[in-house]
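Data deposition worksheet. Section B asks for the primary sequence of the deposited chain exactly as it was used as input, without tags or linkers unless they were present during the calculation. Section C holds the resulting structure in token form. Section D is free text for depositor observations; keep each observation to a single sentence. Incomplete worksheets are returned to the depositor.
Section A, Depositor: J.P.
Section B:
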Amino acid sequence: MYTGSIGQNRRPFASVPLVDHYFPAAAIEGARTTLTRCIQRGEGAGLVVGPSGTGKTMLCLLLAQQFRKTFQVAMLASGRLSSRRALFQAILYELGRPYRDMDEGELRLALIDYLDCGDGNPNGMVLLVDEAHTLPLRLLEEIRLLSNLARDGQPLVRLVLVGAPVLEERFASPKLDSFSQRLGARCYLESFNRTETLDYVQSQVNSAGASDEEVFPEDTCQSVFQATGGVPRLINQVCDHALLLAHVAGLKTIGPANIEEAWADLQQLPAPCNAEHETEDADGGVIEFGSLDDSIESESRSKAPVFRVASVEQEGAEEEDGSEPDGQIHRIERLLAKADEDFQPAGSIGPEVELNFEEPVHPFQEEFEQEEVVSDRYAAVRAKQPLTFGTSAYAVEYEPPTASSEAPSVCIAEEPETRHEECVAAGRQEEPSTAYSSSPDDETRRHEYRQLFSRLRRG
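Section C:
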């Protein structure tokens, strides 16, 4: 839209990464050199980590263009692959191989067969995985298994993983220990510094056919760095929008105010404060604190942070000088006191739901129901009757102890006389017992038992 109006033959700041717009900053150029060596020598998988907007996709496109003449290149840029079948289909699609109407096993064998045969693919494949941090662990493990394929001592798959900083955290998991050991290079992308931002803006404008000093002066480039923090994606957005606003306003040169307007129009961050605005008086009782300049130059480091007080009312200006620290402190206290007096709340806001809690009850102060006493009418009768076990020849008598007796008396004997003698020898008094006073029925039953036992013994 604005091409040609400011002496440009193309759009200098594109919204999508283009290889023609590559700027060799220190971080991204170092990563490109390291990955080039890693791919050419087959040292292992390469890992690229960087924040959003720092040129990760640009680096993938640059490597794909660089190695497309010597390797088969497959770049997975879509991300969000949820299954092994989808992974193999994406790789075969990038290689230009059939991928439809095949299950997971057939897709895997088709890819391995294509890589191993070497028909039209003598050096193997370079697999570039962008947004690798979105892949689940099972797909990362499948990619690791692909990197194990080799022929004549050379790997068939040269792998580069690119993703956000969370990707490096995932490689710290014990489940990816074997994959982490295979990494041959780790590269980190960063934002541009102040000097690189200035060089990047000027190089993009010059490559578009315009004069950098006429369109983006040096102070404007400094404002671009303050607004974007040196992130390449944000630099492209702000500069492109500033060019659009300048074209609408009929301007040939973009100043710091235009950068602030473009940044405020994008509504991403508040517009930065320039030095020329700091000298003006602010309206409406505002206390402004300046920021330290992050420049590495000695002059900017020697400057102290700006501290300025602006007030609507200039009461007592003749009595107190605003440049003195004591006067500034008194003015701040006066503004705060006035703010407390003027503050009138609109009303008290109560809770929408009232919560009523019962009083706590002490657990040991509760009244418990009395125990129900169950009386056994036959307990006294059973206590008086002795228990007799066995036959008359071997009888065991047990009587429950009473309060007066120390221990129960148990006597085993064949005849009453023997029992009496044993009890006397043991120092116990023989107590009368009804165990040997049997009824006629008991004698008949015992006689039958003796006959039965004698028949059993005779066989």
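Section D:
The chain has a mean pLDDT of 75.
The radius of gyration is 48 Å.
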